Amino acid sequence: MDLAQQALTEGRFLPIAELNRAPPDAFVRLLSPAVENAPWICERVAASRPFDGPAAVLQAIGNVIRSAPCEDQIRLLRGHPELAGREATAGTMTAASTTEQGRLGLDRLPAASLAALVEGNRTYRERFGFPYVVALRRRATLDEVFDDLNRRLGQPPDVELATALNEVIDVTRGRLTLLLGPIAIP
User: Fold this and answer.
1) What's the confidence (pLDDT) of residue 95?
2) DSSP, res 141
3) Which of 35, 75, 81, 118 has the most CB atoms within 10 Å of its CB?
4) What was the pLDDT predicted at 104?
5) Residue 119: how many CA atoms within 13 Å on its side-chain side?
6) What's 91's DSSP letter?
7) What is the C-alpha to C-alpha distance for residues 123 and 128, in angstroms, rounded to an integer?
8) d(CA 47, CA 53)
9) Please, what is the Cα angle at 167 between 130 and 181, to 5 degrees?
10) Which parts of 70-135 fold into alpha helices (H)?
11) Residues with a known catalytic role
12) Residue 26: helix, strand or coil by DSSP?
């Protein structure tokens, strides 16, 4: 078990000093639990070391995401699983996504709610070309998720791309908080 998984499992934080002195491949491995299927982000963030705390790591990740070429941004979004989608059914989601979706019961939806979510996911993906991504930790109920999905379906594609990337950064904030410690909101 590596330091990141050990920190997450044992409920302790990975020391920033460990992250700062890790060789590039270890840095990517340590930070990867915070980003969804996107080690390329960690590779690019490594160049911003040393960090003085979790907020600096989040800022570096946000900078990499926002400055990435559009095709990399789309690739990042496509690396996220749909809510209660095929990855969930197949059991192939990351541990973080499984936990986040399970908190709102997305792993045990009644048939009508599941059908509505599957349809919403399909409509969203057809409209924007990537899955609906939302920071579930900020949503208290499934109704809030549906309201957000429906609202975002009405956004222009360029606005929705920016919204989706901001949601990814907020998902990352939650994961970094678990991995590195609390992050003060600027």
Assistant:
1) 86
2) S
3) 35
4) 87
5) 8
6) T
7) 9
8) 15
9) 135
10) 70-78, 86-90, 95-103, 111-128
11) 80
12) helix
Report if pTM > 0.85.
yes
For 59, the token pair is: 């800022």
What amino acid is encoded at 76 in this protein? L
Tens digit of pLDDT at every position of the chain (186 positions): 455 555 555 668 999 999 999 999 999 999 999 999 999 999 999 999 999 999 999 999 999 999 999 999 999 999 999 998 888 888 888 888 888 888 889 889 999 999 999 999 999 999 999 999 999 999 999 999 999 999 999 999 999 999 999 999 999 999 999 999 999 866
Count other Cβ atoms within 10 Å, centred on residue 48.
14
Domain borders along the chain are 81-157
CA distances from 161 to 83, 98, 141, 165, 179 (A): 18, 24, 24, 6, 27
Please give the structure tokens belonging to residue 128.
């924007």
Cα 124 from Cα 89, distance rounded (Å): 19
pLDDT of residue 184: 80
Largest pairwise CA distance in the chain: 50
At residue 34's C-alpha, the angle toward residues 146 and 88, to 5°, is: 45
Q: Which CATH architecture has domain 81-157?
A: Orthogonal Bundle (1.10)
Selection from 29, 24, 25, 36 nearest residue 6 by Cα = 29
Using CB atoms within 10 A of its CB, is residue 114 exposed (0-12), middle (13-18) or buried (19+)? middle
